[in-house]
Design goal:
This protein is of the alpha/beta class. It has a single domain (3-236), classed as 3-Layer(aba) Sandwich (Rossmann fold), CATH 3.40.50. The chain has helices at 3-23, 41-56, 79-88, 110-128, 140-154, 182-192, 208-222, 226-233, and strands at 32-36, 62-70, 93-98, 133-135, 163-166, 171-174. It has a six-stranded mixed sheet, sandwiched between helices. Helix 2 links the parallel strand 1 (32-36) and strand 2 (62-70). Helix 1 (3-23) crosses helix 6, helix 5 (140-154) crosses helix 7 (208-222) and helix 5 crosses helix 8. The longest helix has 21 residues, at 3-23. It is globular.
Length: 254
């Protein structure tokens, strides 16, 4: 990527993350933000953006990072790169190891079980460290895919919010990349030469999320702004113009 184009994508994503921070009230001055880094482009970009924005924003906050490895799953990240990056930017880095104990006979897919156990461990680490905010690398496309999946499979209009209170307000899960597209994160990661995962997980494509992703690609052909419009639609729900929840009522006796 050319230098000028690289500088453009960096500035663009910084502005989007700043917009998310201020519009959704994600981070306040003096807080400690724990960033969960999986080893993929999204979490590296999130960590890098927060590190550099913390230098330019008037409200200063503290950044820490954590990586949870699952010893019984084939996925592996470049932990040496994590250590070098965090040391260079003076970020406390925490490693934890868990067992997923996935059984192929379970109803839930491997990705669901693995991601839940990783998140559970991250919740515990953030609370141990006294972090008020736990930042995840979910982006706009993730939110739209989740909305479609929940509508299709669970008959609910719900997604991944920019900010979610947990444990009675003791901890907040935040998503500073919520206004950023996946394709923008790809360009950002290429510009900064973030490493790929050492070993991918064979279970990652065996989920409903891939189907939702393919569905979105079809929608892109109908309208190039389909993803943004679907995302914005979650904040533009007109109650008088949607079907109310059906109640199971018995017909009157004649």
């Amino acid at each position: 990527m050319q230098k000028g184009r690289g500088a453009y994508i960096v500035k663009k994503l910084e502005n989007k993350v700043k917009s998310a921070i201020y519009n959704f009230g994600l981070i306040t001055e003096g807080e400690t933000v724990m960033v969960g880094i999986s080893g993929g482009k999204d979490s590296y970009a999130l960590l890098d953006l927060l590190v550099h924005l913390n230098k330019s924003l008037p409200e200063k906050f503290r950044v820490e990072a954590c990586h949870v490895r699952a010893s019984d799953m084939p996925y592996k990240a470049d932990e040496k790169f994590m250590q070098r990056y965090c040391k260079e930017h003076e970020i406390p880095l925490h490693f934890r190891q868990i067992l997923v104990e996935y059984n192929p006979h379970q109803r839930q897919p491997a990705c669901f079980i693995c991601s839940w156990k990783r998140r559970k461990e991250l919740f515990g680490i953030a609370r141990e460290r006294g972090c008020k905010k736990l930042a995840f690398g979910h982006h706009l496309d993730d939110a739209v895919e989740t909305l479609l999946m929940n509508m299709i499979h669970h008959s609910s209009i719900s997604s991944i919010p920019p900010k979610l209170s947990m444990f009675n307000g003791e901890l907040f899960a935040i998503r500073p990349l919520i206004l950023v597209h996946d394709r923008e994160l790809v360009k950002y990661s290429q510009h900064l030469a973030f490493p790929d995962e050492v070993s991918l997980c064979p279970h990652e494509d065996k989920t409903n999320r891939k189907q939702a992703r393919d569905l979105l690609k079809s929608m892109d052909k109908l309208n190039r702004s389909a993803r943004e419009n679907i995302f914005r639609a979650m904040g533009n729900i007109y109650g008088d113009y949607i079907v109310p929840k059906l109640e199971k009522k018995k017909p009157p006796k004649r």
